[in-house]
Amino acid sequence: MNPIRIEPLRALDEALKFNQKLAAGFKTLRELDDVDYGVTEKEEVYREDKLVLYRFKGASKPTAKTPLLIAYALVNRPYMVDLQGDRSLVKNLLAQGEDVYLIDWGYPDQSDRYLTLDDYINGYIKRCVDVVAKRHKVDKVNLLGICQGGAFSLCFASIYPGKIRNLITMVTPVDFHTPDNMLSNWTRGMDVDLFVDTLGNVPADMMNWCYLTLKPVRLFQQKYIGMVDILDDKAELENFLRMEKWIFDSPDQAGEAFRQFVKDFYQGNKLVKGGLKIGDKDVSLKKVTMPVLNIFAEQDHLVPPSASRPLKQLAGTKDYTELAFKGGHIGIYVSGRAQREVPTAIHEWLKKR
Amino acid sequence: MSDTKSTADLSKDWQAMQQQYWNAWTDATRQASSQQPAAGTPWHEGLEQWSRMFDSGKQSETADRLMSSAKNYVALMQSMLAAASGKKIDDSPLQAWTEALRSGFNLPNMDAALVNNPMAAMLKGISGQGAQGFEQLSQSFAPFLAQAKQEGMSWLQAPAFGYAREHQEHYQKMLAAFAEYQEALKHYNALILKSSQRSFTILEDKLAERSEPGRQIDSLRALYDLWVDSAEEAYAEIALSDEFRKVYGDVVNAQTRVRSQIQQEVERVGTDLGMPTRTELNSVHKRLHDLRREFRNAQSADVAAQIEVLSAEVQALKQELARQQGQPAASVHKATPKARAATPNTQAKRKHAAAVAKPRAASKRGAATFNDAISAMRDSAAGTSASHKAVAKKNRSDA
């Protein structure tokens, strides 16, 4: 039997409706205001260079005794964890009683091109952890590292195990050399020294182009054709635009930190193979002895689950928990399922420790 | 359409034009005629005119992306409608559908290099404010290379001599880098073409799996979505290969060498004109960064030294207390070797830290005035001196 049974009149009707929706939708698009993001009230508690450390304020007082510090990736803006009222990891964590802090790395410019991973991990993260610990009069804090921020958090927890009570890693790459890791395949043929020596900081446009080309048809065409379906729904359209804004609101990458991250993580795979040094400090996942909750997304095209799972074998902890989320790299923060499952899982896991 | 028309008038014009077009299509479909409305009009034109009305909107960048994707999709639908019109539902062979889909990606007036290569067209389209691809950069470099080709590539190997020898060598390197980049890009584009071709093979395989009732494709959108799945699968096969790693690395590295050569040239011109250069700025940034690090390290060293001094002080006080009470102090023995091992350097650090720490300590104790603070410091200093003497005495007796 013919696998294609498209009735000509139905096809015509489909095309007509698409065209009508597109025409009507442009009117809606034109009338929309610029979208905002970051819904939860927060206060600045520490500032250094371009970094700002925030503490979020929930509707009620936190019940958790140990504060939770979120370290996001450098490659995107951290407001993804607090995108909008009904899509906010932060808001849901606060509602569960957690006391949530977030490091906002800011937008590096050329004056930051010499920032190294030593500056980020032994400098910025360490000082933020110290500030949070001091505010709460505790020796250890809970650390939640996301994506590249998760890799940084693993390094930090390995170097300063005495400062971390519980470690949560979300969509965090550990083994960078799995065969399904496209980004890793591409970076391994790159002369990163030439790249950074020439560019200084790595421009955000270049990073965005690279991410889009991981799935060019889906991300550059199909997504916008799908957008036509929601053009007459103002609320859905705003959600789409908010996400769109986040995707392309990318900071440039500080050159030296980028160089080391590509060399040691993507090319050298040193979290797995060993020999990683951050500044003058050795990193070994065996020294990650605190309880670890590793959350990854089953349909993640940026950090495939196979890149996150090896943490179970490599971490020195005896208390390791894994959560496989049904969704993708972005859905893990913003999907309806994520709102229900992820903050609750984090809170319940922390509560027991 | 006149520029002076209002948005409402433009909208009416476009709708009228669309209606005419739809009527033509409907007639063609109902009459089972092989005649179809002219390709390329007015859908494309209509969309173009429509999009011009939104050039100053708040969401103009998203509107651009939407419009670009919609134009491609509309062209696809048009091509597929042509395959469907005038035929009964089961009449169109599979081959005709896939051909219609394939040709639907070939937009009117398209760059010849992109014909039958939807993946390359897609990658070329990823441009604008948010991203820059290999193709765009290649275009911006092309005039330089064209000039080099005009002059004959053999010039690149000619020996340089005389007053402008270094400049000539630099230009030769720069043009050689351009040529190398073009060559690398050719290999990259060949792999992208391979992925486009493979996408249609995968599509045919996927369609073959949908022959049984209930799994058949019954809409243009479903057929398009299935092609997207096929295209991504084909692209991933290639993009994850060792060959692509090599080719991708080559094109990135070659492009970077071109940038580097251009930078050097701009730098040379900048120097000649007395303008600040990238190298000079980098030097300033490096110094600034080193200073920032030095400052942070000094701050944390200060704190560490303060802690060391205060710990020693506490231990000494414990010792003194224990001595006065005539009891052995268990913890004393742990602290003393460290105190004994203090080098002149750590002693200096301690002195400095003590000087910094004491006013703060005094002030924290709630000194009401500056004089109170000074008195508190004196008391503290006397105590420290006494306790250090006690430690020294104990050390001697331990030794």
Written account of the structure:
- The complex is a heterodimer of chains A (353) and B (399).
- With 353 residues, chain A is an alpha/beta fold.
- Helices cover 45% and strands 16% of the residues of chain A.
- In chain A, the strands form three sheets. An eight-stranded mixed sheet of chain A has the order 1-2-6-3-7-8-11-12, with helices on both faces. In chain A, strands 4-5 form a two-stranded antiparallel sheet. In chain A, strands 9-10 form a two-stranded antiparallel ribbon.
- In chain A, helix 4 (148-159) links the parallel strand 7 and strand 8 (164-170).
- Chain B has 399 residues and is mainly alpha-helical.
- Chain B contains 13 helices and no strands.
- Chains A and B meet through helix 1, helix 5, helix 6, helix 7 and helix 8 of A and helix 1, helix 2, helix 3, helix 5 and helix 8 of B.
What keyword list fits this structure?
heterodimer; A: 353 residues; alpha/beta; two-stranded antiparallel sheet; 15 helices; 12 strands; globular; B: 399 residues; mainly alpha; 13 helices; 0% strand; flat
Summarize the structure.
The complex is a heterodimer of chains A (353) and B (399). Chain A has 353 residues and is α/β, with parallel strands linked by helices.
Class by alpha and beta content of chain B: mainly alpha
Distance between the termini of chain A: 60 Å
Largest sheet of chain A: 8 strands, mixed
Q: Work out the radius of gyration of chain B.
A: 39 Å
Query: What is the rounded Rg of chain A?
Result: 21 Å
Global mean pLDDT of chain B: 72
Taken from the alpha-carbon principal axes, the silhouette of chain A is globular
How many beta-strand elements of chain B? 0
Written as H for each helix and E for each strand, in order along the chain, the element string of chain A is: HEEEEEHEHEHEHHHHHHHEEEHHEHH
Number of E-state strands of chain A = 12
Could you tell me which chain pair has the largest interface and how many residues each side has?
A-B, 71 and 103 residues
Structural class of chain A: alpha/beta
Q: Name the assembly state.
A: heterodimer
Overall helicity of chain A: 40-55%
Helix content bin of chain B: over 70%
3D shape of chain B = flat
